[in-house]
Amino acid sequence: MSEASHIVEHLIATLGWRGRFQCIALLLVGFTSEILSGFNHVIMAFHGPPVSHTCKAGPQIHLGYNSTSWVQSSHAYSVQPYVTNVTHSECLTTVTYSDGQDEVIKCTSGQWEYFPQYGERNIVSEFDLVCSAEYLTSLATTIYFTGVMVGGLVFGDLADRFGRLPVMLFTHYSLAVVGLISAFSVNYTMFVCLRFITGIFVQGLQNSAFTLAIEFVQPQYRPLAGVVVDLFFSLSIMVLAGLAFGIRNWRHLQIAVSLIPLATLLYTWALPESLRWLVMKRKTQRAEKLLRRICKINKIPFPVETWDRVTSTAGEQVLVKQQYNLTHLFRTCSLVKTVGVSAYVWFVISATYYGLTFKVTSLSGHRYFNFFISGLFEAVVYVLAIPLMNRFGRKGPLVGSFMIIATMCLASGFMATYSSGLEQVITAFGLTGKIVSSCVFVIFYIYSSEMFPTVVRSAALGLCMVWARLGGLIAPQLNQWTSVLLGFDVIYLFGAMSLIGGLIVLTLPETHKRRLPDTFGEGNSFSNRISTQAKTIGLAGKPVKDDANREMLGTCNGSENV
């Protein structure tokens, strides 16, 4: 590890982790990020659940004869066929005439009558997203997660360049504006376009906030910091269930969740930038100002000696002054492997979590109660994740959780296929799989953030989130089309993917109680677990003499310098 990295770790250790400043900062960052992000991630469960409906196409017809039933034909009168029966189905109206002929009338916009189970008004009934247009509901979720995927790429790099805090605040308040506009969507096209933009800002908010949170604490307390932030996500699920239960109109619900940022105006002045980021970017004046503020609030002396070491190394770390981007992650085989495995695991986590989340509302039981319970137990799982990660590291709990998810999904699918009368058990298994998948979410968020160096941590997380959101955008399509195209319940697919995910995690390095890597050399060491005295070999197979290049270069056949 470089001298600057040692100094930063020592500086953060000097400040402690239970100081008043750190506790307040974590709570504020968690509320700012996860409440609004959680609302937007899962709100389609209430904006677009299926609604019972009947086609009311055709004119208002009275059965039997009427004054128009007789028409003159030549010199005699004949009887025109009259209506004997009208049958309404979900998508068609069938009119039967006295001559035995049937006329089938297909419903068009405005010709459906809706029977919402809980008296709600959502986008399905308002935009007539039924019958041939039913797929548009899941498409809206897919478009949203496409925006999230784009946001991971865009804002991850911006957070590394301009800081975690500016990106977090910009995306937070942008979400409020876009969310309010969404509530006044005049048609489906406008709604999904705004959902796409919402997704972009949501991912920028989550990435920057989570990175900011874990960079404020020592290695052994990163799980706690991550869980504190993620607890607000589970809280958002419980709050949203309550809001949706009380506000049955989707437009009013959208306005309610979009007004949350008004509360954050009271404390934005107190939110800090990442001390680690400031030091590694050589912004010593801002770092010193923040450090003095932390010491004052925590009532501890200013670490003069440690800070002098920080300023004395200002000219030594040439690399951290450079601007890095996503391409640097693919210059060594060790980081390529880490990125590849992380991408697949994130895809599985997201597809399973959101697939089961949207499936929860269609399981037996009360929709709002199921949703609230899932959020409540997610919070419990988040808390349990802390001692699990502290005692067993990252890989063990992650693999175990994946195995539980696979078991729950496969068992649930088997019972649904081959048994009857077990609806409550199937619901319990499905909820368990969804709840445990949230545990995987929080563990791997912390795990993946620990494997990449500071100089590109946000960008790397952004790239991982692209794959996570790819899983999220595919999840609603999997729910809708798997049984139609493949002939089996989608929950089997979630189980199989989780099983593979648990096995592939075994190829990743353990990061438990290890210092966060700051430079590329340290990131390579994390992936290869090699000695810090290992000889550096360039991409061409020759020793690298230049210190600056030595941090960047690696080889598939040799070692990387640390």
TrEMBL record:
- Can the keyword ATP-binding be found in this entry's annotation? no
Q: Which Pfam families does its entry note?
A: Sugar_tr
Question: Which GO terms fall under molecular function for this chain's record?
Answer: transmembrane transporter activity
Keywords from the named record: Membrane, Transmembrane, Transmembrane helix
Q: Which domain of life does this protein belong to? A: Eukaryota
Q: How does it sit in the membrane?
A: Multi-pass membrane protein
Q: Does the keyword Ubl conjugation apply?
A: no
One GO cellular component term noted in the UniProt record for this chain: membrane
| Span of domain Major facilitator superfamily (MFS) profile | 26-513
User: Which residues are listed as membrane-spanning?
Assistant: 135-155, 167-190, 196-217, 224-247, 253-272, 335-356, 368-386, 398-419, 425-447, 459-478, 490-508
Task: Provide the primary localization.
Answer: membrane
Q: What is this protein called?
A: Major facilitator superfamily (MFS) profile domain-containing protein
Query: Which organism was this protein described from?
Result: Elysia crispata
